[in-house]
Amino acid sequence: MNISKFVLSFILSITLFAQTSWAQMASTEALFKQPVTVSAKEKVIQFSAREDVSKILEQMDVDPKMIEARVASMTDEEALKIASQIETLPAGGSSLIGAAVFVFVLLLITDILGLTKVFGFTRSVR
Fold it and tell me: Is the separation of the CB atoms in 75 and 32 below 8 Å?
């Protein structure tokens, strides 16, 4: 019985190694046969066309056609600067809200563990 388990595990290990040795990585350029690039002006226009951004711009009474006209009149350096700022903006909007939520959760956990007594609605584990 021990020999059959040994043989079975040996055969399984050989088949697992054989399957992974044939795998290859394929780049996106190799799949599409052309590099995928978006110009800075197109990136700014795509950002302004997003649903959440367009709602905010509508609240500010900004016409989408005027945005496209202004982006078209920008120099390449200006469009590149705005496109790089779009990429570096935080996704959450405000880091202050994230920090406040982190502090609240931290105090809540320490309160439940009995290390602090900040909130009256928690019961200590101790």
Answer: no
